């Protein structure tokens, strides 16, 4: 946008400078040409008057002296002929030259003299000017002057150089003004774009300066700051509501679980099925509350990280993977699932807290053990490259349909027809923790290959 704005403003500025400079150049050349022609026409009139008065030897000598002096001073040739075309005085050129003879013949016939073309800085060709001698219809002779335009062309070149220099200065000044205007207009736009990105990332107090740019952008900045505060307040209230509600429900749920457990010895055989269903639902409520608390914690941690409130974290991914595999092997063996990982490649540091990494791996391993199915194998592998560490959790279970992949990280979403119970918050929590650390979480389900979860995390700086 900045480039386009600069191009438009610079184009208008250059067009305005050219609109002033080009006519000024033409006017300067035309004025100097007119001055040149008038001076030479005056010289022609003076020579014609002397030729008309040269009736005796003394008059002829005076004419010859004037012509010769002009030739010596200005370096221009002059020829005076009588009514028959015979030369009377010659200085610097001859009357029998074809161009001179043609000009003299035209003057003797009283033909209008052709106006010379406008002089340019590079004009160097001599210009022939002719005038008849006498004032009547019958010319008594003719004067031909070969004018040299070198001095006038040099004057035009000097004037043009000054005009062009001024135009260049004006163009540079206009470009500087265009740059300042572009910065003045676009700086608030860039700040607003950065503010939108900050709000999207969940950063609180994402404000922009309301004092830069045009009044319309300043008003927009004020409105954006109000919106940012409203979004931050709403998000904070939502997180507090989830956390407070979960905490408030935990005590009644614990009391309910205690009472349900105490009823176990007193349940008759006919009510056992209903009792077991009740216990399962209580356990589901407990898992849901735990998920809500974990989600609120993940959201709070992501907000703190976006605001820069927490120091950079570091964890050894290899050690965390090994520890979590050992922790999950009994549950996996009970579910008939085999956990597999290659030999340890050595310490692999990632920019993530160890507790968050453990929570993410627990979510992925829990899903794999629950949904891969008996006899499945869950394979974990990680590698480092291009400043990031890639962790892949792959199983050979049934996977997910391609249409369900985009929904898997949505809160409270569960696969249709699934038999395993869950809160639908595991993957959303894992994704929030990973993205808060500048990483990515992707899901894929290639045909016949089960579910593949790929996590990328940056390495510590």
Can you offer a commentary on this structure?
It contains nine helices and eleven strands. With 461 residues, it is an alpha+beta fold. The strands form three sheets. It has a five-stranded mixed sheet with strand order 6-8-9-11-10. The chain has a four-stranded antiparallel sheet with strand order 2-1-4-3, sandwiched between helices. Helix 4 (150-200) packs parallel to helix 5 and helix 8 runs antiparallel to helix 9. The two termini are 33 Å apart. The model has no long low-confidence stretch (mean pLDDT 82).
Which keywords apply here?
HAMP_dom; 3 domains; Heat Shock Protein 90; 11 strands; Beta-Lactamase; 4-stranded antiparallel sheet; rod-shaped; Helix Hairpins; transferase; 5-stranded mixed sheet; 13% strand; 461 residues; alpha+beta; 9 helices
Q: pLDDT average, as an integer?
A: 82
**Which range best describes the helical content: under 10%, 10-25%, 25-40%, 40-55%, 55-70% or over 70%?**
55-70%
- Biggest sheet layout: 5 strands, mixed
Provide the domain count: 3
- The number of strands is 11
CATH architecture of the largest domain: 2-Layer Sandwich
Strand content: 5-15%
Radius of gyration: 49 Å
Q: Biggest sheet, strands in spatial order?
A: 6-8-9-11-10
Short description:
This protein is of the alpha+beta class. It has helices at 2-53, 57-74, 98-108, 150-200, 215-262, 272-306, 317-334, 354-371, 426-436, and strands spanning 77-82, 87-91, 127-133, 141-147, 315-316, 338-340, 349-350, 377-385, 388-395, 440-444, 452-458. The chain is rod-shaped and about 160 Å long.
């Amino acid at each position: 946008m900045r480039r386009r704005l600069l191009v438009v403003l610079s184009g208008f500025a250059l067009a305005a400078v050219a609109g002033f400079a080009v006519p000024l150049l033409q006017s300067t050349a035309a004025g100097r040409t007119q001055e040149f022609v008038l001076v030479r026409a005056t010289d022609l009139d003076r020579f014609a008057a002397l030729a008309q008065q040269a009736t005796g030897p003394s008059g002829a000598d005076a004419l010859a002296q004037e012509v010769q002096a002009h030739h010596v001073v200005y370096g221009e040739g002059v020829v005076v002929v009588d009514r028959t075309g015979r030369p009377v005085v010659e200085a610097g050129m001859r009357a029998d030259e074809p161009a001179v003879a043609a000009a003299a013949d035209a003057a003797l016939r009283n033909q209008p003299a052709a106006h010379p073309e406008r002089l340019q800085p590079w004009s160097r060709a001599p210009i022939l000017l002719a005038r008849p001698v006498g004032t009547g219809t019958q010319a008594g002779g003719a004067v031909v002057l070969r004018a040299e335009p070198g001095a006038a062309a040099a004057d035009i070149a000097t004037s043009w150089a000054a005009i062009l220099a001024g135009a260049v200065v004006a163009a540079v000044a206009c470009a500087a003004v265009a740059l300042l205007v572009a910065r003045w207009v676009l700086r608030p736009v860039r700040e607003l774009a950065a503010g939108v990105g900050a709000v999207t990332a969940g950063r609180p107090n994402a404000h922009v300066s309301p004092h830069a740019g045009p009044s319309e952008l300043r008003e927009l900045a004020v409105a954006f700051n109000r919106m940012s505060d409203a979004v931050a307040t709403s998000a904070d209230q939502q997180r507090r509501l989830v956390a407070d509600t979960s905490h408030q429900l935990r005590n009644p749920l614990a009391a309910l679980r205690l009472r349900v457990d105490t009823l176990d010895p007193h349940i008759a055989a006919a009510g056992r099925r209903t009792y077991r269903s009740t216990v399962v639902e209580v356990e589901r409520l407990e898992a849901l509350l735990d998920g809500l608390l974990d989600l609120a914690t993940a959201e709070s941690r992501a907000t703190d990280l976006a605001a820069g409130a927490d120091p950079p974290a570091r964890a050894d991914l290899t050690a965390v993977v090994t520890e979590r595999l050992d922790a999950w092997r009994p549950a996996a063996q009970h579910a008939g699932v085999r956990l597999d990982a290659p030999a340890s490649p050595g310490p692999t540091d990632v920019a993530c807290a160890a507790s968050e990494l453990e929570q993410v791996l627990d979510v992925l391993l829990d899903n794999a053990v629950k949904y891969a199915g008996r006899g499945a194998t869950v394979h974990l592998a990680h590698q480092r490259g291009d400043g990031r560490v890639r962790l892949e959790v792959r199983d050979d279970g049934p996977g997910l349909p391609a249409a369900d992949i985009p929904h898997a990280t949505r809160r409270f979403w569960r696969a249709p027809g699934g038999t395993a119970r869950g809160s639908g918050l595991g993957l959303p929590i894992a994704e929030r923790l990973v993205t808060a650390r500048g990483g990515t979480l992707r899901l894929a389900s290639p045909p016949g290959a089960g579910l593949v979860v790929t996590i990328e995390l940056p390495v510590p700086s």
